[in-house]
Amino acid sequence: MFVKFDCGCIGIINLQGDADERPVVVKPCDGDGDPPLDLFRRDMSDKGYEPLDPDKASELLHELGLLIGQGYQLREVRWLLREPQPT
Known about the structure:
Layout: E1 2-5, E2 10-12, E3 24-27, E4 40-41, E5 49-51, H1 54-81
Antiparallel strand pairs: 1-2, 1-5, 2-3, 3-4
């Protein structure tokens, strides 16, 4: 579930089957916004949280999907521009 922590971080809690109970922070409150999204674990046990608004969660999923797609496109471009290997 996407949540917003008291500090302003947005993250994911209660990942099914996850042995590491620390949330995955998706949008840190202390980041400079570049990149706007990230994925890392952080101990948030001292923070309260509330569920993220469903519309904001949908926007976040869309943005994550775009970033994943752009990463895939970049790998394709790099592959196309690679130096031919001698045979």
